[in-house]
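Hey, I'm writing a tutorial for new members on how sequence and structure tokens pair up, and I'd like a real worked example in the thread rather than a made-up one. If someone can provide the structure for the chain below, I'll link this post from the tutorial.
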Amino acid sequence: MRSVALITITLLFPSFLLAVNKNPVPVARWSQDAPNCTLRQDYEDGRTYYGISISDFEIILAVDRQELEKIHHRATAMLSVLLTFRYKGGGQLEVQQNRFSLEFVKHLQLMKTSLDPDVMLHHLQENVDDITDEVERHQLRKHPENKAQKEAELQARLKDYTEMMDFISTQGLRPAVLNHSNPAITGWVFFSIKDRWIGPWRKPEQFILRVPVHNLMVEFPFFLPPHTGAVELRRRPEPQP
């Protein structure tokens, strides 16, 4: 009886796989040699730009060449990328920021979904409150002789948090709908690196950013530090995290 059950499972398993993959989402993958893809490095702002144009829309991914080095200098450790969407159609295009994902290829192909800017701001404010409470209600009471030093350290940390919160609030990409009257949007997208399977970095690190658009899954494979590409010097005023 057991052998019959095993045979039944073996026969059904391939059918199950076929059912799951019956209607896979088409993938549009950025490639340096593809005619609809672009690559350039701007040495003035330190970013590498990956562009892909498909049908009635265009997406440009910008990644700081020193992103890995900058991560641990932030108030909270996270990886950031800059995305620009341009819509050229007559209907509308939904930018589903909450469905973006980043694959850490060299770290067991771990997948991280993009962080919600509003949730990030809430957590950062909680951190600010906790840090302030710890210093003012505990450390200063135990060591009043170190008041000046502790207060200076607290203000420095709060400054970092305030700047990060302001950046996320004003520059973070949020879900949006593009159309003829609102054809483009640009914003930063953030991914947590807090995971037992991430780190230390294995340079060059390899990532795959996945962005669902219409009925497509657009993929951007990239490296940090990046591979050498075309150089273009241009002044860009966008702030950086």
